[in-house]
Amino acid sequence: MAAAFWRIMLLIEALLAMALAAPLTRLLSGNLSVLVALWLGAFVLLQPLWVLSAAVLTRWAAPGPHRPMRARTVLAEAGALLVSALRMSVLWRRTEPPGSAASRRGSSARPAPPVLLVHGILCNGGIWDPLHHRLSAAGWNRVERIDLQPPWADIETLAVRLVQTLQAMHRSSGGQRIVVVAHSMGGLVARAALRAGGQSLIARIITLGTPHHGTAIACHLPFAPTRQMCPDSPWLRDLNAEQEGRLPVPVTCLYSQDDTLVVPPGHAVLQGARRVRLERLGHLQLASSPRALAQVLEELGVGS
Q1: Which of 46, 128, 131, 270 lies deepest, with the highest CB count within 10 Å?
Q2: Among 163, 216, 217, 213, which Cα is nearest to 188's?
Q3: Of 89, 121, 140, which one is at a domain's C-terminal end?
């Protein structure tokens, strides 16, 4: 369903770009090559407009002074948005199942716990292509991605799906506990899964841009998981009251002072968790930029 959402969004953007390019082409020369150039230009320019609009609305929803938005970060986040949308709009291929060639690499595979990558709201496993490739190149022998369905389900429902996936990985890996790497809402799903019986299945959790204390823009969106991500939601208060300062497994929070959706950025950290602040990265960049991925690999001990 998430793939269909991103295909529709890309189609809408393409049509908007054509609506902008066609009148300009007629005014200039009517040449097809000019039309294509203007269409591509308009399509590319739409990306920073979406990012800037989302960032402005996010800051409008959250009271208090905010760090000024940097043009460089907005442009980089726009690039991440476009590339991520393209990745998520196609049918992405999951990691090979246990017993496949990837799992039978024997001595050449890295002796490490399995890793499960958990995406955020309205996304799918395609967003993890860069990290998945880097872990595979580093010899990590078991990396899987979950596709949380349905995308508008409440976080507790998604946590049940996550626990089922963790149980399957736990069995197929000979009883090993799993490292969960989660982006955005995925980190809350992982913590809910931890509460729902995942403590014996999860070795540690690494979150990237997860609104552990909510984000104000979520209060203005009428969907079950966004209501739960509102800073004042009873669900979030209960989760934090139970876990914050007494986390049952190690948790690392990667966050950015320039996050375009989690505002204020301190809402992406938890008391008792290891905190790693990254500079000049937008929300989607936290799941795709080389700097963020290098930090994830460092946290996992790749190369150590």
Answers
A1: 128
A2: 213
A3: 89
Burial 35-70 (b: 16+ CB within 10 A, else e): beebbeebbeebbbebbbebbeebbebbeeeeeebe
Name the residue type at position 198: G
Instruction: Give mean pLDDT in consecutive 10-residue pieces for the chain, a chain of 304 residues.
Output: 88 92 80 87 92 92 85 94 92 44 42 90 94 90 90 93 95 93 98 91 97 95 94 96 94 95 94 94 96 95 62
Looking at the structure, do residues 24 and 80 belong to the same domain, yes or no? yes
In sign, the C-alpha dihedral spanning 146, 87, 95, 107 is negative
Total domains, the chain: 2
Q: pTM of the entire structure?
A: 0.90
Which residue shows structure tokens 């998520």? 88
